[in-house]
Amino acid sequence: MSYQLVIAEKPSVARSIAGVIGATEKHDGYLQGNGYLVSWCIGHLVSFADAGRYDECYKKWRYEDLPILPETWQYIIPDEKKQQFDILRSLMERPDVTGLVCATDAGREGELIFRFVYQMAGCEKPFKRLWISSMEDNAIRDGFANLKPGTDYDPLYQSALCRAKADWLVGINATRLFSVLYHKTLTVGRVQTPTLNLLVERDAKITNFKKEKYHIVHIGVGDADAVSSRFSDAAEANAAKAACAGAQAVCVSVTREKKTEQPPKLYDLTTLQREANRLLGFTAKQTLDYAQTLYEKKLLTYPRTDSQYLTDDMLPVAESLVSGLWGLVPFAKGQNTSPQYDRILNSKKVSDHHAILPTAEFVKQGFNGLAESERKLMSLICYKVLCAVAGPHIYEAVTATFTCAGKEFTAKGKTILSPGWKELDHRFRPSLKTDSDEDAEAVRELPELKEGQTFADVAASVTEHFTTPPKPYTEDTLLSAMERAGAEDMPEDAERKGLGTPATRAAILEKLVQMGFAQRKGKQLIPTKDGINLAVVLPEALTSPQLTAEWESCLTEIAKGQADPDEFMAGIEAMMQELVKTYSCISEDKQKLFQTERIAIGTCPRCGEAVYEGRKNYYCGNRACQFVMWKNDRFFEERRKAFTPKIAAALLKDGKAKVKGLYSMKTGKTYDGTVLLADTGGKYVNYRVEHRS
What we know:
By secondary structure, the chain is an alpha+beta fold.
């Protein structure tokens, strides 16, 4: 009997697929049955090798070795993943395996994961591609009934490979270059650094902002409040108020304009991450993690999509889904609506995957068994689907203009003619229990007003205001800025604009925080001192959103088979060569830019110079002196006590420190004691316990 080897990205996905296609017999690292062997990767089983694998000299970071441009790329299998790789390779080599099915996630990254394993294993057997947008049983069955030739996805693989190589080249070369120049590890990334620059530019605008005071005069015209234009001078505003108080106001014009707000589009990943951040307080990474879990539970379609539409042939799916959701979500119950599907169907605007949808399985199961975070996210997605097919929000905008004491005043209001999708919006928002109302609009209805109408003895007042600086980025607004970055310099018809892709943006934000270049303050993302300095010292080629957006657009063209991968990579390599040549040296002052401010914790007992805390030790500031106390010293580790700065400071000051909770290996109990600094002047400092209590 011959077998098809199906390779999924994760064990959980492999099990779901195996259950549908009848591979139920369990083996070590795979499942078997019905003519199939189903196995899995564990994320990236195969990765690019580090620079040190190409040449021993690259293990040290030196300017002379740059740029590092591999002629032949090398790959590694991490030790912890080697076992699963060996299982996959042995399955590929089985004589009864006649072909493979690539069942990794249907996207650029999933394609790369499979191809790397396939090539590393030296496999040449033919393979087909499973391309699905949902983990539901029916979707899997349909996918296997319509497997595509693997070669159809060669351009997608080339795009993924170019992206990975470009990230490696920029990351390795630029990181090493600027780390060596500034004597501090400074990670630089193709997408990460322009994103950091957005944060830094916004921070500079806030810092440099000079607030200005202004005044507005109000007059009461019946039940309406009419306002003046801004007065920069308080005396002028008060003079206008005095002139108007008790005077007559005349309505000189009333304009009414019928306006329509169309329903929102369905979610792609970025808009989901943005709204989940704004309305639920989730980080972009949390949203992606929850969505991925829901996808694997068969309750949500493929989340890493950049489309907000469905294909034209999905009308029956949409109708069935909407019909099921009306009775399932509390905020929609009792709503009379005639769903309008034409706005969400557009095959031309769907590339790899359609918009994010709940599945038929979710309609059947509902919210049962979901964690609170998953429940909230699913509610948000259901809300968006129902809003997207609801009617438009129609209202009449009314603007009334008045004159009083020679000054002009305006009153604005609106009259709702048809609430449409906003009715659902108003019903849903209270369920969030967050500060989501911060952007809710105030609806004011004006009294009936006519041209020529007069108002005697009007009341007048002055209010004081200040101009406000731009707001710091939140993940919501930063994701939006990343999506739009460089768009004004891109062709109108460019399919992908902006920084990164929906699938990668969350990881970029997390990395900026992890590397210490940005920090979270509530929902806000703020650049750190190091982040600001890094963005300032890097060349525009690395910080420009425009350049990175162009690269992203080019990668999309490669994926469609419309651009040359070799040409793209040649451009990246040339850029790295130019970068190294341009930044050969910097001034001594600039080299100190990233030096951390050192705080002395005591005096060296050997030479009398200051002792500072390092990451792993407490060291003498005099380089000629070799005095150092290591934080992981065996004396403290055996006694299960952290060697804190407080203990180190006491030892340096008095030669001894009182320490509580020292562990005794003999008795297995803890005790309080006095630790003595027993420095003999050798390479290592010794300690001993003088007194126990």
